[in-house]
């Protein structure tokens, strides 16, 4: 498929997703409590088959799914994406037993997953993580996890966590192991963190939490690869989330500037306004094409996936920030009123420039790939 266009079936699917997001999922989102997992919303995503589709989707399908849901209901998009981020390490590196235990529950919307990588001292520099996995255990080979995770989406309300811990001190990225840790494991506690964006984020404390060989995802000391493989898939789709928000802001701006009158006519007849809207539309389309190109590269196994993923995530999230901000400016004070679509998007659009690798990290990746 050419990366610059969608076929009729894909366009129809995207239209259906937008309608479902607006008509069925948005009412559930509005009933949720900010900062907490909205389990009825997650269950609805399961009932609609969207979580199952997400678990088996290629990168392009994942991007179309996230962009379309974001256009109609950002909370539904985020709930779906967090399920994917937390469970994809199990998809790619889990044992048959781990997959059979958790993936059907995730797909059905009955189990909430979380991706536990970031720490107080290891955010952008993920290889610097310090959660200790100390050898020990009375029931055979195992480890005791001690330390803290922070800025973890769905924490502390998830049912299981994919946790990245240091099994070999001083080895950098080569000494990290991924573990599947159920939330009811003794010694694991958590607390919510109140954030600007409305989705749940929290901190986790590990007080000698016991894990065994049966909890390892992939191989010992190879967990950083599990994390990076997950992020390489999800980074373009973070861009898709951003494109969905930019598209919603642009659509609202087109309607507002066509209807709102000032200085004797509609706003759209003012050249300064029309040119601003044209710039918003152009940047949004450019971001969309970068996202689709990165997704196509991932699905085709191209060698330049890290660079393309980083470019897509970088440009799309920065573009969405620009488009939403410009939309607020063109709407005026009404866009800042609590409950307005743009007030909601203004709070939502800031975080994607930071999580899953901040803008500065993406530029570093791109430069490294170019000079490499």
TrEMBL record:
UniProt cofactor(s): FAD
Organism superkingdom: Bacteria
Domain Acyl-CoA dehydrogenase/oxidase C-terminal, chain residue ranges per copy: 221-370
GO molecular function: acyl-CoA dehydrogenase activity; flavin adenine dinucleotide binding
Domain Acyl-CoA dehydrogenase/oxidase N-terminal positions: 9-109
Keyword Repeat: no
Domain Acyl-CoA oxidase/dehydrogenase middle as annotated: residue spans: 114-208
Keyword Lipoprotein on entry: no
Keywords: FAD, Flavoprotein, Oxidoreductase
Family: Belongs to the acyl-CoA dehydrogenase family.
Protein name per the record: Acyl-CoA dehydrogenase
């Amino acid at each position: 498929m050419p990366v610059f266009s969608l076929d009729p079936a894909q366009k129809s699917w995207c239209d259906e997703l937008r309608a479902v997001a607006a008509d069925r999922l948005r009412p559930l989102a509005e009933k949720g409590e900010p900062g907490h997992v909205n389990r009825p919303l997650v269950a609805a995503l399961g009932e609609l088959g969207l979580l199952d589709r997400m678990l088996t989707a290629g990168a392009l399908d994942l991007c179309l799914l996230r962009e379309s849901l974001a256009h109609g209901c950002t909370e539904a998009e985020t709930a779906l994406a967090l399920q994917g981020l937390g469970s994809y390490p199990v998809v790619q590196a889990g044992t048959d037993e781990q997959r059979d235990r958790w993936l059907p529950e995730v797909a059905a919307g009955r189990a909430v997953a979380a991706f536990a990588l970031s720490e107080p001292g290891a955010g952008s520099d993920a290889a610097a993580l310090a959660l200790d996995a100390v050898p020990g255990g009375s029931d055979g080979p195992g480890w005791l996890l001690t330390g803290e995770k922070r800025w973890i989406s769905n924490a502390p309300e998830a049912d299981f966590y994919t946790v990245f811990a240091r099994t070999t001190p001083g080895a950098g990225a080569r000494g990290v192991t991924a573990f599947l840790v159920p939330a009811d494991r003794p010694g694991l506690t958590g607390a919510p963190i109140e954030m600007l964006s409305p989705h749940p984020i929290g901190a986790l404390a590990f007080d000698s939490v016991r894990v065994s060989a049966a909890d390892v995802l992939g191989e010992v000391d190879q967990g950083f690869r599990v994390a990076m493989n997950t992020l390489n898939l999800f980074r373009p789709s973070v861009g898709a989330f951003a494109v969905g928000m930019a598209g919603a802001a642009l659509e609202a701006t087109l309607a507002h500037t066509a209807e709102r009158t000032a200085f004797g006519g509609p706003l759209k007849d003012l050249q300064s306004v029309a040119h601003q809207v044209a710039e918003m539309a152009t940047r949004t389309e450019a971001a969309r094409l970068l996202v689709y190109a990165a997704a196509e590269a991932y699905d085709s196994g191209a060698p330049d996936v890290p660079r393309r993923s980083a470019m897509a995530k970088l440009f799309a999230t920065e573009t969405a920030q620009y488009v939403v901000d410009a939309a607020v400016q063109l709407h005026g004070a009404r866009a800042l009123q609590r409950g307005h679509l743009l007030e909601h998007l203004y709070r939502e659009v800031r975080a994607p420039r930071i999580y899953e690798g901040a803008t500065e990290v993406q530029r570093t990746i791109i430069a490294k790939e170019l000079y490499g």
